[in-house]
Amino acid sequence: MAKIKLSDKKLQELKDVCKSFNNEKGELINVLHKAQSIFGYLPAEVQEVIAKELNASVAHVYGVVTFYSFFTMIPKGQHPISICLGTACYVRGAEKVLEEFRRQLKIQVGETTADGKFSLSCLRCVGACGLAPVVMVGEKVYGRVSPDGVQDILSEYNN
Amino acid sequence: MNMVKLIIDGKHVEVPENTTLLKAAKTVGIDIPTLCYFELKDMNIENRPGGCRVCVVEVRGRRNLAPACNTMVAEGMEVFTHNIRVLNARRTVLELILSDHPAECLTCSKNGNCELQSMAQQLGVREIPYAGEQSKYRKDTSPAIIRDVDKCIMCRRCEMMCNDVQTVGALSAVNRGFMAVVAPAFEMNLEKSTCTYCGQCVSVCPTGALTEVDHSRNVINSLADPAKTVVVQTAPAVRAALGEEFGLEPGTLVTGKMVAALRRLGFDYVFDTDFAADLTIMEEGSELLDRLTRYLKGDKEVKLPILTSCCPGWVNFFEHNFPEMLDIPSTAKSPQQMFGPVAKEYFAKKLGIDRKNMIVVSIMPCLAKKYECQREEFKVNGDPDVNYSLSTRELAHLIKQSNIDFNALPEEDFDNPLGASTGAAVIFGATGGVIEAACRTAYELYTGKKLEKVDFTELRGLENIRHATLDFDGLPINIGIAHGLGNARKLLEDIRAGKSQFHAIEIMACPGGCIGGGGQPYHHGNSEIIKQRSAAIYREDSGKPIRKSHENPFIQELYREFLGKPLGEKSHHLLHTHYFDKSVGDFIEE
Ligand code: SF4
Ligand code: SF4
Ligand code: SF4
Ligand code: FES
Question: From the alpha carbon of B56, which atom of ligand 4 is closest?
Fold first, then answer.
């Protein structure tokens, strides 16, 4: 496992988060949520700090991180791609769109391409049902996406 | 206590409230099968995740079947433990577990001792109808323990032992669903974790998912090598448990038969770790007295309490968790590691052979000793003081493999000079024994008087943390004892906070001490077995003609001929060690 260095500032921020929950072991899930919003993901180093601050074992922290699907240990890509799988999108073929992204990027949901450019995740309804199926790349929303349109979306970012 | 009346399989039962159906049924002779459930009665150890559902029963009026291990009795309840619905459900549950389990029983090291295997036998499973994809993981081999988690059934007993009892936290349930497994953080190897190799997870794992690293082949090879003089040492707790592997009642002492078996296996010299335990007392006891007298004279540098250091599981624990307190434990090596240099630097010279041509094997109730004997500081130019450490279980296998009818063996005596020992040494095997042995010697050395009553019964027992004040001729000595690392942690935290009132503390990593060690025959949760072993240890002690370490004539001779005096230069060099800070970089490679 490659070592990443947490900047002093981020480290302090993380410790403050733990402190805001009184360094209580029982608050682990809440602490992890906050930590993930700071770092975008939960690398081993972050989990070790949290374990230490909450006086929990690293194995336990890792156990919780791997149990809940909303926690991830993989950094998001430069352009995180989210595909809405809410009812409306699903009915209009979002799964086929997801399938096409997976095929083209050669990664699974929750993973990041080797060059760190794209990552893939699923969303529950983003509230743009009129545009279903909806795909987001970063902050940008694409509507009525079909499997054929996937190539075009990716090429926007591929130069 | 409020009593509750209920009916189980037509039998009227009356038990205190907050009793589980499992225990209530037991009172009327109904044995409901269990798998994840685990208990060591009277030792505060229980695993009750209610996960496997093998123990399901029907409760009249409830729609779903209930797990008996995790359901409390209620007034008027009517329970069925073996009607057709229950039997079918139980079988389905087991078949599902088996469908994700490799059917490798023939070659599994747990063959014959596996609780999953006996459950399949008990329920008469003859085929596994749900054969499908099986989860696959890589095998993880550490210096003492092998994790073969394809065989894990997620009972989480090991997690309970490692976290709740030992407070080590090396293992945790990770992932979910099909991929769920118990593993170290980041699913790294155990060797990279804070594991102490106490082996308590191994001793409770129902399947072959956690087992010891087996060194018996190396020992067989050494025995077959005519160029090698092979010396064996046996730890105190082994003689009180080995008989169980040969169908003898728990608590049967098999010291003489064990010696005979080792001789028949071909060891050139059958010696006793107890000899080294007497030596440990000389060194550790002297260190205690030295620190105590300096302290009484007002020396502010002196660290008290002194902590025993003969348990390598415990040593690993404080190296990982209390790095700022490395100067508090005694520097005395464990008996296993004292025996090594005495054999290779003293006895080998007496025989006129090179230490490289001597192989020292130890038989231990312990898995941490496998790691300990590989530590770099216990080697001379790459040659380990102790070459191989086998568990009690491995010795039993070796004896069986060699066509030795153990129960028909005569009783034989250890060889001299490293086979002679006192009663003080044998009680090393039970919690409280080391400190009792140390006090027998320290008392006489300190007061210059003869100790009339050698039994310090106030130091014995199975309570988690015990303390007693002994009277050293007017000087009160406060002794603390902890077994199980969670209990040790409590005493250590008191010391860190400056609250400890003790002069000396004994710590053993395993619940019960070495008699409950990770290398002992499997007790399958029967704490009576551990109690019987303990009784056997104290029986052996009271039957010994000499019961104080400093009166062992061969120990006296060793000091005269070779070592000089306790804590002397030679002792310091050969019998003492130092500790390392292992608190950082457990998972992240630099
Ligand atoms: S050997 Fe002891 S410390 Fe290591 S994982 Fe097992 S229970 Fe935990
Ligand atoms: S490794 Fe053994 S003790 Fe641990 S959960 Fe798996 S089967 Fe149970
Ligand atoms: S208590 Fe005994 S068996 Fe357990 S780790 Fe310590 S020395 Fe080994
Ligand atoms: S033994 Fe009761 S649920 Fe496993």
Answer: 2
Nearest-atom number in ligand 3 for the CA of B200 is 4
B169–A67 C-beta distance less than 8 A = no
Q: How many CB atoms lie within 10 A of CB B275?
A: 29
Which of B365, B368, B361 lies closest to B389, judged by CA? B361
User: With 90 as the cut, is the pLDDT of residue A159 above it?
Assistant: no
Which H helix or E strand runs over B391? Answer: strand B388-391
Q: What is the CA radius of gyration of chain B?
A: 25
Kind and range of the H or E run holding B27:
helix B21-27
Closest alpha carbon within chain A to B184: A59
- pLDDT tens digits, A83-137: 988 888 888 989 999 999 999 999 988 888 988 899 998 877 777 888 889 999 9
Q: For chain A, give the mean pLDDT.
A: 90
* Dihedral (CA of B401, B407, B410, B413) sign: positive
pLDDT category, B384, cuts 50, 70, 90? very high
> Parallel, antiparallel, or unpaired for β B3-8 and B78-80?
parallel
The pairing of strands A118-123 and A79-84 is parallel
Enumerate the domain spans of chain A.
8-67, 79-157
B217-575 CATH choice from 3.20.20.140, 3.30.70.360, 3.90.580.10, 3.40.50.1780: 3.40.50.1780
For domain B3-97, which CATH number applies: 3.40.1190.20, 3.10.20.740, 3.40.50.2300, 3.90.226.10? Answer: 3.10.20.740
What is the pTM assigned to this prediction? 0.90
- What gap in Å lies between CA B284 and CA B442, rounded to an integer? 9
Q: Determine the topology of domain A79-157 in CATH.
A: Glutaredoxin (3.40.30)
Task: Among B146, B162, B212, B586, name the best residue to mutate to test ligand 1's pocket (greatest count of ligand atoms within 8 A of Cβ).
Answer: B162
Ligand 1 center from residue B129 Cα (angstroms): 35
Whole-angstrom distance, CA of residue A135 vs CA of residue B355: 72
CB contact under 8 A, B589 and A1: yes
Atom 7 of ligand 2, residue of closest alpha carbon: B152
- Convert the pLDDT of each residue in B186-220 to its tens digit: 999 999 999 999 999 999 999 999 999 999 999 99
What ipTM was predicted for this assembly? 0.85
Phi, psi of B506 (to 5 degrees): -100, 135
Q: Do B174 and A63 touch (CB under 8 A)?
A: yes
b/e map of B478-502 (b: 16 or more CB within 10 Å)?
bbbbbbbbbbbbebbebbeeeebeb
Cα–Cα–Cα angle for B175, B178, B180, nearest 5°? Answer: 30
CA distance B244 to B249: 6
Q: State how far the Cα of B519 lies from the Cα of B8, in Å rounded to an integer.
A: 39
